[in-house]
Design brief:
Elements lengths: L1 H25 L22 E5 L2 E2 H12 L2 E3 L2 H4 L3 E2 L2 E5 L1 H9 L4 E7 L2 E6 L49 E4 H6 L5 H6 L43 E5 L2 E2 L19 E7 L4 H4 L6 E7 L5 E11 L6 E12 L2 E12 L2 E2 L14 E3 L1 E14 L4 E19 L3 E22 L3 E22 L5 E27 L2 E20 L2 E22 L10 E13 L2 E15 L2 E12 L3 H5 L3 E6 L12 E6 L8 E12 L8 E16 L17 E3 L3 H10 L2 E4 L10 E6 L3 E21 L2 E17 L7 E2 L10 E11 L2 E10 L3 E2 L4 E2 L3 E11 L10 E8 L30 E9 L1
Parallel strand pairs: 3-7, 9-12, 28-33, 29-34
Antiparallel strand pairs: 1-5, 2-4, 6-7, 8-11, 9-10, 11-12, 13-14, 13-44, 14-15, 15-18, 16-17, 18-19, 19-20, 20-21, 21-22, 22-23, 23-24, 24-25, 25-26, 26-27, 27-30, 28-29, 30-31, 31-35, 32-34, 35-36, 36-37, 36-38, 38-39, 39-42, 40-41, 42-43, 43-44
Helix pairs in contact: 2-4
Length: 881
């Protein structure tokens, strides 16, 4: 397998190198179907054209702009239908011409690639993608200022069809929103999303949280998405559409390592998406889309801390970029450090053993590069690279000892790709991605009385991923509602995992898979057909087949997008998704333990024994899910800045991998009957012992096969079934207020999730219980902006969770965040483009709701749902040149 992996790595290198050498030759012809006056690259900011764009319908003017500039103009027909514009004439850049056309329309433009411009709804509406809207001309001005264009990924997240519609809801957080709400990194961003659970891999997850599952231990210091609370390994995270390497043993991806200053927007699809992306996309998929065109240099610093003590934070960042006639790049670097929050710094954790950290200490250095370069007229190279180094400090304390730990995490991603434009509006894409992550945990155990180090436990986790893919997308036929488009492709994916404890190998495994996919978008009816009761109707379908070391899996998805009028949109999807078990679950070293039978129950002789199996399981099958969702959006034309969307979802998740037995009451319990082999033969015992790498004898006498009354399978097993359902509500509204604009936006999520280990067990609640997602989460607030001044206030709510041990439900948790920002804008003095920001999180210093713990090692609050930071104040300063 190692040799084959090396061959595959060499193959991708040769493929990319050969493509880079030959594509300029292939790209010497004109772009099919486009007029190319000189250099028609959209990235060429210096080229000016004599534009003559007619007054009248916006669609006709956009088409004329495309012909005269040599660019492809893409827009949904229903978006521009009925809109009219004034004539635009004169010699100018294409951006100025397009900005004038769109002024006051509420629409925005966005570069899809160096030859394609897409028209979308404005950023003030929930359906916006985060691009800058074309501004309305100020009174008395000759024309609006040129819009700052941002770059999008090649596709909308959730579909591989360029300009296609996805039948699933999409949550979009633009760079403007991130700035307005005072977030300093993407970890803070995802923890604000109601559909995301903060358990799993997040810096505030503290001692005791592992009661909710082994993944609730932050071994990397990073922040990972955990949509619907299905686990950090059941949400797929992408960077510009590329898979990133897993971190630690839980297969989480650290999204906070990506410098937020380089992010254009974050798109989240909280719906099963394995038919599009493959394994892991059960809870959904998140795509971090980077800025592509960035001119100049921005430097910033931030200082903050918790008013109750701890979390003193220092951040420094530099972002730079430039563009030229055929390309451009952006590079970003940041250095962030924060002190820990200790239990003795909060009144409600004074009784915990000390020292104990409530929030990890952190030192992060990260850098990112994103580059695009045209190679001839028909080819474009893209390159994304990320490197981060993080050091973590955390402490856990017990009655007579305490354990300080230092964790070092290194992450690397290198992802090149080529887009090749073919005749007939088809595009061929070649891409590859290599990701690595290494985590070294150095933990010691110290005797509290003597101060002597009694144990040192170094642990290393190493993950590596390799992906390469070829795909094509383009039109098939023209239907009444538009072009029927197809996306199809194939590829290869490889993952490698190593777990060392000291010098002993605890887990070492790899997996590879080959895959092929196809997706079809059929626009059956459009507004121009004037069909009664049908403004728009489109059907979508996708299927993906994977052949991996874990078996063969086929995942389909079907959807419909229907608008009865311009004011309403309905979406519905049905599909199947899957997740391969983690490599730690499959390849952890096996252990067989020889116990007295009385350990697991009564009814057997005193000298009877039982054999307990623990560790990994190479025979694990993929976890499978059936997903359904539906949404209704209201976006009235009469009130164009209003957007409301109600979403319903249902996930039937089977074959979930876990260790089902966590109690001593095993014998005679019907729940565990499937996991206990009673009266095993000697041959069965020998097979069980042979499957384990290590044997322990806790009986006190030599092993005697004749006394073994049962073999208990305590390994990772495909055992659980979960049912997750609920609804989301989101909306936004923008209105002029005084001399400025007021934007109100928010989102809320209601969740119901249950689990059963076997068919014999009655499902029990997960959502609304300790260390699982709260049933209700929401974030609602307002932003007021006038000139360079911005003020925002947002409220966050999480309902209380129940301690199943005693049936007591805790209180809810409500906090408020506020941000004040002033940007001087472009000026002719030293104060030009200077921004000052004051931000407060948990403005009123709300303490988390408490519960009674069983150990003073544990935090007396649910650290997966609530934070112990309290009020956090920060001051930021940045300047752009």
């Amino acid at each position: 397998m190692k040799t084959r992996t090396l061959r595959n790595a060499i193959s991708i290198a040769l493929l990319v190198t050969a493509a880079g050498a030959t594509l300029p030759v292939l790209g010497q012809g004109e772009l099919p179907g486009a007029v190319v006056p000189g250099d028609a690259s959209a990235s060429n900011l210096a080229v000016k054209t004599d534009f003559d764009l007619p007054a009248g319908e916006l669609a006709a003017a956009l088409d004329a702009l495309g012909r005269q500039s040599g660019l492809r103009m893409r827009y949904p027909p229903e978006l521009v239908a009925g809109r009219t514009v004034r004539a635009v004439q004169g010699r100018m850049g294409w951006r100025d011409a397009l900005t004038r056309l769109l002024a006051g329309s509420g629409l925005e433009y966005e570069l899809v690639d160096s030859r394609t411009v897409a028209i979308r709804r404005g950023a003030g509406q929930a359906r916006a993608t985060g691009s800058k809207a074309a501004p309305t001309a100020a009174p008395g001005s000759a024309s609006p200022a040129p819009a700052v264009t941002n770059m999008a990924s090649v596709q909308v997240t959730g579909t591989r069809i360029r300009g296609g519609s996805t039948p699933s809801p999409v949550i979009t957080l633009s760079s403007k929103q991130i700035q307005q709400e005072g977030f300093s990194d993407l970890g803070e961003v995802i923890r604000s999303v109601p559909q995301n659970f903060s358990g799993g891999q997040n810096p505030g997850v503290a001692a005791g949280a592992a009661q909710g599952g082994p993944s609730d231990q932050n071994m990397t210091g990073g922040s990972g998405l955990n949509l619907r609370g299905l686990g950090p390994d059941a949400t797929l995270t992408l960077l510009n559409g590329h898979r990133m390497s897993y971190g630690g043993f839980a297969q989480s991806v650290d999204i906070s390592a990506i410098p937020v200053e380089a992010v254009q927007r974050l798109e989240i699809v909280p719906d099963g998406a394995s038919a599009i992306y493959g394994s892991d996309a059960v809870g959904g998929v998140a795509n971090v889309i980077l800025k592509r065109d960035f001119d100049g240099v921005t430097a910033g610093t931030r200082y903050g801390g918790a008013t109750e003590g701890g979390l003193t934070t220092r951040e420094y960042s530099v972002t730079a970029g430039t563009t030229w006639a055929t390309g451009g790049f952006i590079v970003a670097g940041e250095k962030t450090s924060n002190d820990p929050v200790y239990s003795d710094q909060r009144d409600y954790t004074q009784s915990m053993y000390r020292p104990s950290t409530l929030w990890q200490g952190n030192d992060l250095r990260s850098g990112l590069l994103s580059l695009h370069q045209s190679l001839g007229d028909s080819t474009e190279l893209h390159l994304d690279a990320l490197r981060s180094e993080r050091n973590i400090l955390t402490d856990m304390a017990y009655a007579s000892t305490y354990s300080p730990a230092k964790i070092k995490s290194d992450t690397t991603l290198l992802a090149p790709s080529f887009d090749i434009w073919l005749p007939g509006d088809w595009t061929l894409t070649l891409s590859g991605a290599l990701g690595k992550e290494k985590n070294i945990v150095s933990a010691t155990t110290v005797n509290r009385a003597s101060g002597v180090v009694t144990a040192h436990s170094p642990v290393t986790y190493r993950n590596k991923s390799l992906t390469y893919e070829i795909g094509a997308e383009g039109p098939l036929v023209t239907l009444p509602g538009g072009e029927a488009r197809l996306a199809a492709g194939a590829g290869y994916r490889y993952n490698d995992f190593l777990y060392l404890s000291g010098n002993a190998v605890k887990a070492d495994g790899e997996e590879s898979s080959r895959f092929a996919y196809a997706e079809l978008n059929l626009p059956l009816v459009g507004p121009e057909q004037s069909v009664g009761g049908i403004e728009r109707l489109a059907l979508t379908g996708a299927v993906r087949a994977e052949d991996g070391d874990y078996g063969r899996v086929t995942t389909p998805r079907f959807g419909v997008v229907y608008s009865p009028s311009a004011d309403f949109s309905l979406k519905a999807s049905w599909g199947k998704s899957f997740k391969a078990s983690t490599l730690e679950q499959r390849y952890s070293a096996g252990t067989a333990i020889y116990y007295p039978a009385s350990t697991f129950g009564v009814g057997y002789p005193v000298d009877a024994a039982a054999l307990w199996l623990a560790g990994g399981n190479v025979n694990l099958r993929p976890e499978r899910a059936r997903t359904r969702s539906g949404s209704l959006a209201f976006h009235p034309e009469a009130l164009s800045s209003l957007e409301l969307e109600l979403t319903w979802f249902d996930i039937d998740y089977t074959e979930r991998v876990l260790k089902p037995i966590n109690t001593v009451d095993v014998f005679g319990n019907p729940i565990y009957a499937d996991f206990v082999h009673y009266n095993p033969t000697e041959a069965a015992q020998m097979a069980a012992l042979a499957s384990a790498g290590t044997f322990y004898n806790y009986v006190g006498s030599p092993y005697d096969a004749g006394k073994v009354v049962a073999i208990i399978d305590g390994r990772y097993l495909n055992a659980a079934r979960q049912r997750i359902k609920g609804s989301d509500l989101s909306g936004s509204y923008q209105v002029g207020l005084g001399l400025g604009q007021l934007t109100v936006r928010g989102s809320a999520s209601w969740l119901d999730s249950t689990q059963s280990l076997t068919a014999a067990q009655r499902p029990y609640d997960l959502a609304g219980t300790l260390f699982y997602p709260a049933r209700v989460s929401s974030r609602l607030g307002a932003v007021w902006q006038q000139g360079g001044f911005t003020a925002s206030l947002f409220g966050n709510y999480k309902s209380g969770v129940t301690n199943v041990a005693n049936g007591r439900k805790g209180a809810s948790f409500t906090t408020f965040d506020a941000t004040l920002r002033y940007d001087t804008g472009a000026r002719d003095d030293a104060w030009s483009n200077l921004a000052l920001e004051l931000s407060a999180q948990n403005l009123f210093n709300r303490a988390p709701p408490l519960y009674v713990v069983t150990s003073l090692t544990y935090t007396p609050y649910d650290s997966t749902n609530y934070s112990a930071v309290g009020r956090f104040l920060s001051l930021s300063v940045s300047k752009h040149w």
